[in-house]
Design goal:
The chain is α/β, with parallel strands linked by helices. It is built from eleven helices and twelve strands. The protein binds iron/sulfur cluster. Iron/sulfur cluster is lined by residues 12-15, 82, 105, 107-108, 171-172, 199, 201-202, 228, 269.
Length: 288
């Protein structure tokens, strides 16, 4: 069976930087202890497990905001994830006297800066994102005046009187879905300033998956909680290629590869290459 490894795949620069910072903090005993991580530093269980082994205390719970999770931390160091946090989280962490290590990706920081700038200049601001994703939580936390757009109906239901409108988006969304939402938005608000902020790493990975040569199955290696990994599955399906998300080699057990003559493999920006290598190896053994 032919196995195409799609490139680029795996860690983006933002994730590499965040992990390098996290590992340095854990190695350096001069940081105030304990070392808490507010939420998963990146969306990958294996990585989070290995950080825990090295002494990290992960404070996370689904449906709990970063601001709520911070209530559980009273001393030591708090590490903010690559997704960024809201100004209220910064303020609360400072008030608690915590030592802060900020691993927010530079691309997310730009979104925060621009959002603040347009709000200060009196614009009505909108944000295309996924409600409970931490990156979205961080941006929406800048101001209660930001309108969240998740789907077409949100645009249809939106009423804005001002002609000064700014709209931007979460960095890891699907390029195609976001482009469509922007087209619909512009039809309703033709004077709006559109600021598409899907990051370069996301764009390149999605393009590579979309432009791949046709195969019987495209496997995306990544966590179910990883937005950019899930988007890669959607992109492959939009190209007409059956696709699935696989977190680890164990999940291959129930997949029947016997009728497939070609597959392709890519991975999300938060997936370590070692996991992808293990999965490729496991597939080779299964079809041998
Ligand atoms: S996916 Fe993009 S925005 Fe997110 S951490 Fe990586 S480079 Fe930064």
């Amino acid at each position: 069976m032919k196995i195409n490894k799609i490139e680029p795949r795996g860690y983006c620069q933002g994730v590499k930087n965040a992990l390098a910072m996290a590992q340095n903090v854990l190695k350096d005993s001069s940081y105030p202890q304990p070392i808490y991580f507010l939420g998963s530093i990146i969306h990958n269980h294996e990585v989070v497990r290995s950080l825990k082994k090295n002494g990290a205390v992960i404070v996370d719970q689904s449906q709990k905001s970063r601001l709520e999770l911070l209530d559980r931390i009273e001393k030591g160091t708090v590490v903010f994830s690559a997704h960024g946090v809201s100004p209220a989280v910064w303020q609360k962490a400072r008030e608690k006297g915590l030592h802060i290590v900020d691993t927010t990706c530079a691309n997310v920081k730009i979104v925060h800066q621009k959002m603040k700038q347009f709000l200060q200049n009196g614009y009505e601001c909108c944000y295309i994102g996924t409600k409970y994703h931490p990156e979205c939580e961080g941006v929406l936390g800048i101001s209660s005046r930001i309108h969240l757009i998740e789907k077409t109906e949100d645009i249809e239901n939106l009423t804005i009187q001002s002609s000064k409108i700014y709209i931007t988006n979460q960095t890891t969304l699907s390029m195609m879905d976001t482009r469509k939402l922007y087209e619909i938005f512009l039809k309703k608000f033709p004077l709006a300033i559109i600021d598409n902020r899907i990051c370069n790493a996301t764009t390149l990975r999605q393009k590579a998956v979309y432009e791949q040569e046709p195969v019987d199955l495209c496997i995306i290696v990544g966590d179910a909680s990883s937005s950019n990994s899930k988007k890669l599955v959607e992109v492959a399906k939009k190209r007409g290629i059956p696709s699935m998300l696989i977190e680890n080699a164990d999940q291959l057990k129930n997949i029947d590869f016997s009728h497939l003559s070609s597959i392709s493999i890519s991975s999300g920006a938060s997936t370590p290459e070692e996991i992808t290598d293990t999965i490729i190896q496991a597939i080779k053994e299964k079809v041998r």
